[in-house]
Design goal:
By secondary structure, this protein is mainly β. The chain has strands at about 1-5, 10-15, 20, 25-35, 45-50, 55-60, 65-75, 80-90, 90-100, 105-115, 125, 130-140, 195-200, 205-210. The strands form 3 sheets. Strands 2, 3, 5, 6, 7, 10 and 11 form a 7-stranded antiparallel sheet that branches. A 5-stranded antiparallel sheet has the order 1-12-4-9-8, with no helix packed on it. The chain has a two-stranded antiparallel ribbon with strand order 13-14. The two termini are about 40 Å apart.
């Protein structure tokens, strides 16, 4: 979708309705974006706040360079605001904002906003009626970081546990001995459970690291 600014002095944004969230845990808003050819504006802002727009967090990104333009800020009772941007190539980026709204808030609203400057989080300006940014795959989840995109249309989806399997290892591991090596980085929190297992397909003959 193309989010295009109007030729009026106002906030140029895409605003969602109320969304039910899990209270007092970090929420993450993410969206893929690509600059519209010829666009004069270069800053994309994400807001994740309560229904009153007074508690949550904000983040600002540079549309052209694919970088974080301003450090994320907490708003009201919001804490732990962090932002991230990933380069998917061909001018496509994925921006994300994570924040805990706190205060037992169970309803949130999100905004994707075009800004003409990065002096601060001021979104009102006179648009040219032409400039804009292409958006895709916006996602809100109760998670301290953005997970891979999960398609939803009209209802909430629950992410299943991520699993990866590799068969056909006979050329690497013989019937007597073998090795098990991995490099990883845990991106979740201390309550996450991660298990690495090497087996013959059964639960009786295996090595597990958890």
């Amino acid at each position: 979708d193309l989010l295009r600014e109007s030729s009026v002095s106002e906030s140029h944004n895409l605003l969602t309705g109320n969304t039910t969230i899990t209270p007092n845990v970090v929420q993450t808003l993410s969206v893929f974006f690509k600059k519209e050819a010829g666009s004069a504006q270069r800053y994309l802002r994400l807001d994740l706040v309560g229904s009153s727009f007074s508690n949550g967090g904000r983040a600002l990104f540079d549309i052209e360079t694919g970088t974080i333009a301003l450090a994320p800020v907490n708003v009201g009772t919001g804490t732990l605001a962090t932002s991230k941007i990933e380069n998917y190539g061909n001018g496509i980026y994925r921006a994300s904002l994570s924040v805990n709204l706190n205060g037992g808030i169970t309803v949130s609203r999100t905004q994707v906003i075009i800004q003409d400057q990065k002096v601060g989080y001021g979104s009102t300006y006179l648009g040219d009626g032409v400039s804009g940014v292409n958006l895709w795959g916006a996602q809100l989840e109760s998670s301290p970081y953005a997970t891979s995109y999960v398609q939803t249309v009209s209802s909430i989806a629950t992410r299943l546990a991520d699993k990866a399997f590799k068969t056909g290892l006979s050329s690497y591991i013989n019937s007597v001995e073998g090795s098990f090596e991995f490099n990883c980085k845990l991106l979740g929190n201390q309550t996450d459970s991660v298990r690495f297992s090497l087996s013959d397909g059964s639960t009786d003959n295996r090595i597990s690291l958890a």
